[in-house]
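Researcher: Re-running this chain for the archive, since the previous output was lost when a drive failed. Same request as before.
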Amino acid sequence: QLQASGGGLVQAGGSLRLSCAASGRTFSNYGMGWFRQAPGKEREFVAAISWSGGDTYYADSVKGRFTISRDNTKNMAFLQMNSLKPEDTAVYYCAADRSGYGPKVRYQYWGKGTQVTVSS
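Model: Regenerated C-alpha cells:
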C-alpha cells in the first residue's frame, strides 16, 4: 500500500527527490515517516511529518539537507534530499501510522524501499 520511488545513483553534493505513493486507503490522517538502512547497519529514522504537514521531525544527520513534505490530495509524501553525502547511501523506506509521527512511532504500514547510492 506504500511504494517508495525516486532513488538512484548520484554524486556527492547532488540531490534526489524520493516519492512515497499510497494506495488502497487514504493516508491523509496518518503520520508518515522516512527511514533508511545501509548495508550491515540497522534501520534508522530519517524524517517524519504530521498528518496535516504542519509539523516535521528530522534526524540530526539530515537536518538542514533533507526536507519532508506531503500532498494529501495525491496521497503522497516526499523526501527532498540535497547536499547528499556518501554516508547517505542506503535503502530508503516510507512508513505510515495513524497514531502520530516521529522516530519512536511504531509505524503500521511500510513500503518497499528505494535504493539511494551516493558516490564520492
